[in-house]
Amino acid sequence: MLNLQRIEIFVAVVDAGSFTGAAQTLGLTKAVVSVNIKQLEAELAVALLTRSTRRVSATEAGERFYHQGRRLLQDAARVLEEVRGNHAGLRGLLRVTTTPEYGARVVVPALAALRAAHPLLRIQHVASSQSDDLISGRFDLAIRLGQLADSTHHARLIDHFAIVPVASPAYLRAHPVRQLADLAEAQWIAHSRLTAPLSWHVTTPAGHTVAFEAQSPAAIVADSAASLLAFAQAGAGVALLPDWLVREALADGTLVALLPDHGFPRQGIYAVYPHTRHVPEKVRTAIDLLCARLGHAA
Which residues form a coiled coil (predicted)? Predict the structure, then answer.
């Protein structure tokens, strides 16, 4: 009979592309991972992996076994979840990744409420400005902001938010912004993860949509919205930021919203989760809770 733990280790090795990465993900030593892979290959009498100095990859037989093994692990987890859930509520580990800023303001409070309602559920939250891969990172759920790229994962729209061009009063005294042309000539602070951070479609007060593009490259580039916010408050230029992030700075006057009668495209908030035949109850419950807390049932 095949050992489910060995299958889990094999799947982790393929996902990570290395024994070391799988060991880190599973909290095991590299030696334990190696021994279990050797035993699995011996039980199946087939080579599952090819090893090079840089990467481990699945053989043709290993690729087939990988997909079958993932389905087997998902089915086993579903059976255990359903049996346990009937008696003790949600349990097990829920791994969630978000951006640091939105995670701290919105997602973490929701996860805290989820944990309070289900004491046997363990939660691991990973804050990252990068779009970490769900499979190799073994994440159950990711909260993505902006325009969602095509992927093989499932995605559920939770909400929308507005993005607002902002600058400090000190910057505006030296570089006033009274019209769209002034905004195009501003010193911009841009997000490095956006493919076109200085090109947008803008809705004018008359309701027309026009193409907007900054006239010069970004003066400053940063990889997190929090850094962009800090640069803008320090008077370094204009940043285009989420309304939920700049609300306090606008209220206390450290930032000013520019051209408020113009509109930049609204952005989405998405719950992204791996494409599986069975979506775990803990994932469905977490998404429903986020939708409820934001006042939407999207």
Answer: none
